[in-house]
Amino acid sequence: MRVGEAAGVGASIAHQTHGAIGFTYEHALQFVTRRLWSWRAEFGGEGDWAVELGRAVAERGADALWPHLTAR
Length: 72
Fold this sequence. Notes:
Blueprint: H1 2-18, H2 29-43, H3 46-60, H4 65-70
Helix pairs in contact: 1-2
């Protein structure tokens, strides 16, 4: 969830910094940011992953959350 959010914020800042030229074919920025947005669309946005994370936590139960997080 956090990576998807960061990708969106980072791409937005990069395009604001470069202005409209970042969307032109000649500028490499558009290739990178299009791929970031594509990955978010292909693998689910922040909301999709929030639901998945919520399900995983709910299945294990509240008492198992902290041990599960700290075991990795």
